[in-house]
Amino acid sequence: MGNYNPKISPFTFNLIDPIERNTIGVPTGGWTAIQFRAHNPGVWFMHCHFDVHTYYGG
């Protein structure tokens, strides 16, 4: 938790053995970073359950 700092925060990411999950809860005003391997062609689907975001295609 805390504020995202693009100069410091990426160095704290666990890129060796991260937790695998399909849902991420983000608190109000919070942030999360995701990494995924797009190793197969096609359309990738991501979405949010907030209706206001559907206007943006999420």
UniProtKB/TrEMBL annotation:
PANTHER family: LACCASE-4, MULTI-COPPER OXIDASE
Pfam families: Cu-oxidase_2
Plastocyanin-like domain span: 6-55
Taxonomic source organism: Eleusine coracana subsp. coracana
A molecular function GO annotation: copper ion binding
Cited Gene3D superfamilies: Cupredoxins - blue copper proteins
Family classification: Belongs to the multicopper oxidase family.
SUPFAM superfamilies: Cupredoxins (SSF49503)
Name used for this protein in its record: Plastocyanin-like domain-containing protein
Transmembrane regions: none
